[in-house]
Amino acid sequence: MVVVLNGVLADECPTSVRALLAAHPGYRDAAAQLLGAAPRVVHAPGLLYVAQREFAATVPHDKNINIIGSDDATSCIIAVLRHSGSGVVALAHLDGTGTAEAAAAMAARVQQLAVGYPEGRLELQLAGGFTDPHRYSDELFANIMLSFHRLTVEIDLTLACCCELNTALGGGAPAPLVTGVGVDVRAGDLFPATFPDKGPDMPLRGARCITGGLHSAQHHGANDIVTTSQVLDVYDNALSMLRIGPFNYDPLRGVDLWLEQSDDFILQHLSTTPAVEPPHFVMHIRATLKFIQQHPFPAVTVFPDNRPHYYRRDEQTGCWVPVRY
């Protein structure tokens, strides 16, 4: 494939925001439009939240989902892939692990859900990441661009609010301007957002990132797309249910010792960008470490039957509730 830049097929894929802007300065205006939009606080009803190293896709006529989104992306980048004709949208929170596989899975899922809509194009929007001291985001941006560029379909890059375009300099250390985005599934609009309620099983979902957890075998139909072992598809479109797992991870050595450390020690040693993490970062890490401590072998204690945890949307509260399926 080729990434389409400003409506033109790109022979070479720009692997930095600077190179992108040098050839297509209009992307600066698109980023400024996102940065100038009023941030929204999105609560649980109607929300499909995607955590780090996850992706999900949905359709405009899904009565359970109004907003799909993710936040807490400091050095990470959130990728949104949307089919303009059908309105099908996929969102991933990428941290550098499984990037190529995630790009391929997102494109396959969107194309699958958009079957029957011949008109429309695939549009890619990237947000998050900043000019961090170690240049993690720069490397991630390059990998994301190359991963989509290598696919066999045309994809229009419409937004790249990343790296230098998403960095606040001021008088202090560099910091990201936008760390979360949501997509209005029906309108297709993307906006800055934070999500106080990130949904169920968050310590379990976080454990995958700390330990590098891998998928166990899953039950799939003949037409299902099997996702990568690194970036987990967390939404079952056929059932309209949130789906977590099954996966396994190795016991984390020294987890007891980690839990004895100070908040500052955990912040400095378990974050790639300790200076710009949100206030709840350490609380989330501690909850995740405690979960790993209690469940060193999740294949045995969390997924004993090797089946996902399913959640359906409660009609009264709008929140996800567990269901046996």
UniProtKB/TrEMBL annotation:
Native species: Eumeta variegata (Bagworm moth)
Pfam families, sorted: N_Asn_amidohyd (PF14736)
Gene Ontology MF, one: protein-N-terminal asparagine amidohydrolase activity
Keywords noted in UniProt: Hydrolase
Protein name, UniProt field: Protein N-terminal asparagine amidohydrolase
PANTHER family, per database record: N-TERMINAL ASPARAGINE AMIDOHYDROLASE, PROTEIN N-TERMINAL ASPARAGINE AMIDOHYDROLASE
GO biological process: ubiquitin-dependent protein catabolic process
GO cellular component: nucleus
